[in-house]
Amino acid sequence: MQTRAVIAMEAKRYQDLSSFGGTARGRAAWRAQIWWLFETLFVRPTPQYMFGWRRLALILFGAKIGKRTHDYRDSSFRFVSAPIRIAGECWIAARAFIGPGVEIGHASVIGAGSIVTENVDAATIVAGNPAKLVGRRTTETAAGVPK
Q1: Is the CATH code 2.160.10.10 the one for domain 65-147?
Q2: What are phi and psi of 14, to 5 degrees?
């Protein structure tokens, strides 16, 4: 009998995520299917100089630079918020996560799938989980980097 009580007490310590349900990253599955079709036909085939169109398409379908995340140490997963600052001429690769309060320096590169939780200096290349310095951009490749 005590074992059940201990298990019940232990279960109350964690957030019940069953109420969130759904698929496709919290959106309706039909909406995700429309995005995948739209992206395949109208976004991916566009030339690189049409970045404005790509950005508009992403915003229309709900992409955003978030400033909030959850405090995983708190059992209620409350939100933690702080602005993210991204300087000019940066390249942030696909599926990179940049945590709240992080500043990305001028002409920096963030590798695909990187988890950035600390500030990134100008003209540096970071990658990994957690993101670590893997290189520096040379003055020729990072023209105009403020000294």
Answers
A1: yes
A2: -110, 150
